Each structure stands twice: as structure tokens, then as C-alpha cells.
Amino acid sequence: MTLIPRFFSENGKSYFLFGPRGTGKSTWLRNIHPDVAWIELLDSAVYRSFLSYPERLEDYVEIHRNKGIIIIDEIQRVPQLLSMVHKLIEKMPDMRFILTGSSARKIRQAGVDLLGGRAIIKEMHPFMAAELGNEFSIEKSLETGLVPLVWSSEHPAETVRGYIGLYLEQEIRAEGLIRKLDNFTRFLETVSFSHGHLLSISDISRECQVKRSTVDGYIEILEDLLIAKRIPVFSRRAKRALVAHTKFYFFDCGVYRSLRPRGPLDRPEDLLGQALEGLVYQHLQAWIDYSGLDMRLFFWRTRAGSEVDFIVYGSDCFWAIEVKNSSSIRRSDLGPLKTFFEDYPESIPIFLYRGKEVTKQNGILCIPVDIFLKKLDPTKKPAVEIFI
Q1: pLDDT for 188-209, tens place per residue?
Q2: 15-123 — its CATH code?
Q3: pTM of model > 0.85
Q4: CB atoms < 10 A from the CB of 83, how many?
């Protein structure tokens, strides 16, 4: 398999590298740092050794000090090692520590801080279209997603179907996060209907027949395992009454498709519409994280029902983005963007659709979604001119 260059970059300091399983953390690190000391905590013997005596890390670092870098893979399995890493960073300022993980839950529950700010936190995301270049296919992406583990598989459809099963076994069951796995499995199916929608804990609780507090806990687990995220409503200088709920997305549209039940009452265009919105979401999230610029991701929805899918806001950017799985541009589709622009004339309204032409209608930049995604590059400044 040819290694695909990633937009992820380092800054020469110690750092945490979080990301869902299969996003390529270990592959990237082994390619960039082929000759460093590596502690693999997924190895049972290594895990038992450091779990029993975390102090062994100091001897290990002394032996491998000439390597300059120590990588501890899946650090959440032995969070007690963080105290030793903290001590060693202060004792050996010439050493760099890279700590990978697919969850920060056990670290927080153990009451261990993330090294008191001595190591920054970074995240690895699924592939971006601009990373894949000519290999990017929007049809394939919408069906099986962009998780590298899945994308590079000879049988991506089978791999993505087994992806959540991997989490259920290796993260949730093994770590004892859930007492009743059947309840959680039913919750996963139910919450998949919330992908790209307002998140109603009460509705999910009623559908799953579990307590509201249980659903709250399940959502936190998904976020801790980096499988899903909630984004808040944009309320700066609000002129209209806005909704209070957050919006919910799985980190990858292929994972969403694998979880979402399908039946004779489901319209294929509805499933594709939510998958497309999720595909744009995961690109925007990766773009923001990789760029290092001062930006955050929001959505906007009034109580009257006017909604803009994404607001990218910060000192470097103010975009309002609406996504539609349609090949044409209807005047009604541009309505929410026009309403938002009336309230925020400083913003740049962008309409993404499945057509072929980049155009401008009523002051709104209309861009084919595949062109937008392919040109969304975190190494360049966020200027809309790149899409034209």
C-alpha cells in the first residue's frame, strides 16, 4: 500500500495525539519517526509490565535517551504513566514524548491532568479529500467513509460494518465502560438518526427505554472515544430567538451509514443527504484542527426553523455554509443563508451542492461539494478565492 501524506504536522515539542482507531496515528508516526523508542501498550506483556510498575518508565527512558523521542502508544491503558512522563519532561528537557490514544476517558477518570500543559493536544482525523487527491471519490466516501483503515481495505464495506464492533469489544467491553451492552447497542442504532440533527436526549431516552441520565452517559462515552461530537449553536450578537439544543455528528460518514438502520420507509436521498452533511462536517473539523488557526465550528438555527448547517467563526474566518444533496440550486435552498447574511453581513455565505458549476447567486457563492472538499487545504489561508 502506498503511504498517503497527511496534513497533520508536529511542532518539535511533546504532545498527545488522540484520534479514533484506524485513523492512521501509528502508521504516520512510524513513517515520520522510524528509529525512536516505542512502548506499545496494546501488547499484553508490555501492558502488564508498566501497569504493575509505572516507575519502570524512568529506566526505559534512560536506556533509550539517545533516541531523543519516546512514543507511548494507547496511553489511556496505563494513565498512571502520565505522572512519570510529567516528571521526566522536567528532568530531561531534551527528550520528547509523543503519547497516542483513542480515548481520554480513563485519563480524566484517574484524576490525572494532561501534563499541566507541558504537552499540547493534537488530533488525527480520517482522510481529507485534498490528502487523497485524484484518489478521492465522493461516491465511495459517502458509502464507506474516509477512515484510513476502511479506505485501504480490500473489502471496505465489510470493514466499516465491523468497525463499531471493534470498539464494542476492544474499548467498551474490555474497559468495562458499559454494564449492559445490549442497551448501548440499541442506543447506537437510535442515536444514528440524530446524525446531522438537533440532539434530543429525552427523545432518545424514550426510544431506547433507558433513563435520561444513562443516555447522557452514553453520549459522553461516544465523545470520549472520539466517535461522535456535539457542536453548539452560533449565538454571537443574536438578533433572533435561537434553539438551545446542540447538533450531533459521528466523526465519519461511513461509520454513520454502518450504524443507521435502513428499511422500506427510508428514502435513499435522505440517507445520502445526512451522509453528505456529515462528510462536510468531518472535513471542516479536520481543516480547523490541522490549520492551527483561531476558528471554531458552529451551526445556526432559529426557533422559527431557519437553519444554516455550519458556521466557521474565528479571527481568521467567518463562513456560513449550507449543504444540499441536489444537482441544482433552488431559490428556497438559499433562503436560510440570506437570512443569516442579513443578521451577519460580515459573513461569507457558501452553498454546497452536487452540481458541476461554481457560480454566485444573490451574493451567495455556490460551489460543487467535491470541488470545495478537494480544495479545503489546512496549509493555506481560508480564502474563498481558492474555490473559484
Answers
A1: 999 999 999 999 999 999 999 8
A2: 3.40.50.300
A3: yes
A4: 16
